[in-house]
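[audit] Reproducing an earlier prediction to check determinism. Same input, same settings, fresh worker. If the tokens differ from the archived copy the diff job will pick it up downstream; this log only records the rerun itself.
[audit] input (253 residues):
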Amino acid sequence: MYWRTQEKKEDYHLKKNQPVIEEVKPVVIEEVVKVEAEDFEQLFEDKFIYCGIHLKTEGFKADGKPKKKATFPVGYDKVEKPTIENFKSKGKDIIPNGIILLQEKSNYSSIDVDIPEECEILEQMFQDCNQIHKTKNGYHFIFKQNDLPRSNCGIVDINTNLFFVPEYRNENNEVIGKYEIIKNDGLDDMPEYVYTYCEKLILETKNKIKKGPKSTTEKSSIINYDKREVFELFNLDVMNILYKIYYDAGFMN
């Protein structure tokens, strides 16, 4: 490189050898945006009765997934009309970031699919249900009221109160999950195959009792032995002889 002056050459090398200092940008924490009642009035009209809540995550579950933590206003399940208002919890002012849809008050039936890959009627419900909400890990399918009981069946939860939170965060203010509308075309009756599927899951859940291996010896055949029979069955002299035979043969070494 040709240098016009020695001064410029020295200045160039001086700047070149100086460490580069990166500009540190200030961390901008996004403010919690209050969800307005009008947003849900336009979205759901009069389909549901709901109450404003605040949903976030805090820590992790055993499976490594973020643990949801919802904060509710006092009497949230007693409201008679859609309600979204700021409220206090443990002395703190809480701004709702979503709602809880009240199942009994709204007179709906829901299939909350928590494990989509194991729900054998998932694709059919996508076609036949007109009210579908996507959650972080699954889907909510909502129908008109029927007589199915509220049940937690692992793959799906049936007839529970449902969250709808456009966006929720963890304790570090990072967005963890969103709820989205896939279909919002009203509420229809639950198809017969959905009803049958739920009945089957409810029955399986109720009958799922863990049992140990069944004994091949009946209790009555033991408790009715007299002392002589017990002695003959558990004669220690005989047991010791058998032990010595096995030990000498190398089976007990």
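[audit] rerun output stored. Observation attached for the diff report: Helices lie at 6-16, 37-44, 103-106, 122-128, 192-206, 219-223, 227-233, 236-248.
[audit] end
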